[in-house]
Design brief:
The protein is of the alpha+beta class. The chain is about 25% helix and about 30% strand. The chain has nine helices and 23 strands.
Length: about 425
């Protein structure tokens, strides 16, 4: 019962001091689960809508809920919602939450919301009878330009019976990252090209985490979404994905009390040889280069992990010599085991204006292997291969290649390395 909880969360920024007053908060929640057996029935979308709806109502939202809606009903509801948001003006917060089936067309890489009245999930007819999510995102942004848009795509369920020419089941049921849109943050419940779970009692894992985290006061929106992603990953092993353009601060449940410190943009945990001073330096560089730093903690390796592998635990950054017109990137390796298996994060800034194609800032989890002085891993889609090789001066020689034959290479400078911190401690 492949369900795509496509949660389009579209929020207009309001002055923080007036979060509870003078705001127009509007939400449209759509839950589709009663698909026919040829498409794949679901069990959690109605519960997801109830969870998220209750949370939003507690935050002062005017909530409209529709369930098991066909193409026309979904299209009409979205159009009416966009009109309402536009009429409310700049001091409004708009949320559109969709939970149900959805997927990306494997050929066009366009994401679709699948209505309840599709006859089957055959590739030839499905996309014609489904709603283009990319166009919905564009309409929300273009027709309500005074709003800041947070789009959450809680997708894509492995239970969708996606076929081609009624014969071969298609395995590629994941979403495709939406192109860069100014003023928009996109949060996905799983990694590109991967599937997400419809399992769970009382609702799906992402809806439960979102409904719980969004009502916590004093928590900035970007940080809140990172907390949701961390919880989902910890609870069910799903790897949520987050990308964003430059956004001002938004507090759904209100700003912190006067004099209190706002929630940090990310939870970078100091510990062991990675000190609070080190953590602050990483945060500072991420802020300067507008890198959406994920929550992370450096893990101390076991004593049986050899030095040539321990050297890869650290943080490296590509700054392009201060050239403000170039993209920035950061690689964080948080864990290495004795067999070379490694984990961490790859973080990158948004494309600069005028560059085609436009790609939003984002981060994804690294799951790779160190061998022959090189760390190798792929992006979540499996179409881009990365290689980082340690060179003189503890720099990382970086190269990548994709399925289109494109390649690139550069050098990353070290910000912090475990082996260097260990040496310093012995002096």
């Amino acid at each position: 019962m492949t369900r795509v909880a496509i949660a389009l969360l579209v929020f207009a920024l309001v002055p923080a001091a007036a979060w509870a007053q003078g705001q127009n908060r509007i939400a449209l929640l759509i839950g589709n689960q009663s698909y026919n057996a040829k498409v794949g029935r679901l069990k959690n979308p109605h519960k997801d809508v109830a969870l998220v709806g209750a949370a939003l109502k507690s935050l002062g939202f005017k909530v409209t809920e529709i369930k098991d809606a066909g193409y026309k009903a979904v299209d009409t509801a979205i159009n009416r919602h966009i009109q309402s948001v536009r009429r409310e003006g700049p001091d409004s917060i708009s949320v559109v939450y969709y939970s149900g089936h959805g997927a990306a067309n494997p050929d066009t890489k366009i994401n679709y919301m699948i209505p309840i009245d599709v006859a089957n999930a055959d590739d030839e007819e499905l996309w014609t009878n489904s709603l283009n999510l990319n166009k919905i995102v564009e309409a929300l942004r273009e027709q309500a330009p005074a709003a800041i848009h947070y789009i959450v795509f809680d997708a894509c369920r492995s239970e969708l019976n996606l076929t081609r020419k009624s014969k071969k089941a298609l395995s590629d049921k994941g979403f495709a990252p939406i192109a860069y849109t100014p003023g928009v943050m996109v949060a996905y419940a799983t990694a590109p090209g991967r599937t997400a779970a419809d399992a769970g009692r009382g609702g799906g894992a992402y809806a439960k985490a979102l409904s719980d985290e969004i009502v916590k006061p004093g928590v900035e929106a970007m940080y809140m979404f990172r907390r949701v992603a961390l919880r989902v990953n910890r609870e069910i092993g799903q790897d949520p994905w987050l990308s964003a353009s430059t956004l001002p601060e938004v507090y759904f449940a209100g700003p912190p009390p006067a004099g209190a410190e706002a929630s940090p943009r990310s939870l970078v945990q100091a510990g062991g040889f990675f000190t609070e001073q080190d953590a602050n330096r990483v945060r500072s560089l991420a802020d300067r280069h507008r890198l959406p730093l994920p929550d992370f903690r450096i893990e101390m390796p076991k004593t049986d992990v050899p030095v040539h592998l321990r050297r890869f635990i650290g943080v490296w950054i590509y700054e392009t010599g201060g050239d403000a017109t170039r993209r920035k990137a950061m690689m964080i390796v948080t864990r290495v085991e004795k067999d070379g298996k490694s984990e961490g994060y790859w973080v990158y800034s948004a494309s600069t204006p005028g560059v085609v194609p436009q790609i939003p800032a984002g981060a994804f989890k690294i799951v790779g292997t160190v061998a022959s002085d090189s760390l190798r891993f792929s992006d979540p889609t499996g179409t881009v291969n990365f290689k980082h090789t340690l060179t003189s001066g503890n720099r990382m020689s970086f190269s990548y290649s994709d399925d289109k034959g494109q390649t690139a290479s550069t050098l990353f400078a070290p910000l912090w390395m475990l082996v260097e911190a260990e040496r310093s401690a012995k002096r």
